[in-house]
Amino acid sequence: MKQTSYQDICVFDLKFKNSLGLAAGLDKNGDYMDSFASLGFGFIEVGTVTPKPQYGNSKPRLYRDKSSKAIINKMGFNNKGVNHLVNKLKKRRSDIPVGVSIGKNADTPNNLAHADYLYCLDKVFKYAHYIAINISSPNTEGLREFEIKDELANLIKTLKARQLYLTKKDEYKPLLVKISPDNNEKNIENICEILLKFSIDGLICTNTSINHNHSSGSGGLSGQPLMESSTETLRMARKFLGKEFPIIASGGVMSKGDYQNKIDAGADLVQIYTGFIYEGPKLIDDILNH
Ligand SMILES: Cc1cc2nc3c(=O)[nH]c(=O)nc-3n(C[C@H](O)[C@H](O)[C@H](O)COP(=O)(O)O)c2cc1C
Predict the structure, then answer these.
(1) Is the pTM of this model over 0.90?
(2) Fewer beta carbons below 10 Å: N end or C end of the chain?
(3) Best of 216, 222, 255, 283 to mutate for ligand 1, by most ligand atoms within 8 A of CB?
(4) Which of 19, 101, 136, 137 is labelled catalytic?
């Protein structure tokens, strides 16, 4: 991360007025980008979007565990489809960087998933500041298989080639990969090796965790209890990727102290989701101005 002045943070050649962002999944369709921008975020990530609109998993699919300041969700990429998001991006008035998280439809088998990612990449490329490849949601069957070395390499190779092809018509847009907090050290090392081999531009550490005992049974855990495993994943990734590789931290930031812990563990930028639900917009001010 290059910091040229207090108000000028530069990560993957993009300028940010501050290093705090909104994580993916709260504004899945880009319906509220200007509102979120007005709250003081330095950037926002919208999506995850899929080629076709889809309902997601059946309800109930969202739970709070208030005693531990956690959320358990099994939303399953409910979204209005990539075309809706592109229309919203075209009409956006705010000017902070917007990342777009892309995924695959639930009824697309994994052996055809690359076509879903390519479809979304093509559609959003012109309008996004960066594109996040989501291979770590626990709520789409088989998605995390793309965290396995060979599967990841195949997918990334295809998307990287398309990124370079699209760059002939539009300006370069960074490609990031978002991983889960449930990988062991060897898996993280393998993932990092692939990211470096194919010149991926950045990493998002992490998505939600399947390691929980919530009565809902399945779903991904976020919020305070995610902090430790998510930050440990970040620390290991930083070790394998080296000092310069851009990393966005996501997972368990509920306070300014947590934000600082992410920076200390090697994050260039930090995102919040569950902390924002529990603490409200005040958390943004607490982190940035106190
Ligand atoms: C209800 C809900 C929906 C989410 N949807 C997405 C999503 O569509 N894509 C994604 O990459 N992450 C999604 N996430 C994960 C968040 O972006 C974030 O990585 C995770 O919640 C950890 O951060 P936190 O502890 O600050 O919430 C979702 C999280 C929640 C709670």
Answers:
(1) yes
(2) C
(3) 222
(4) 137
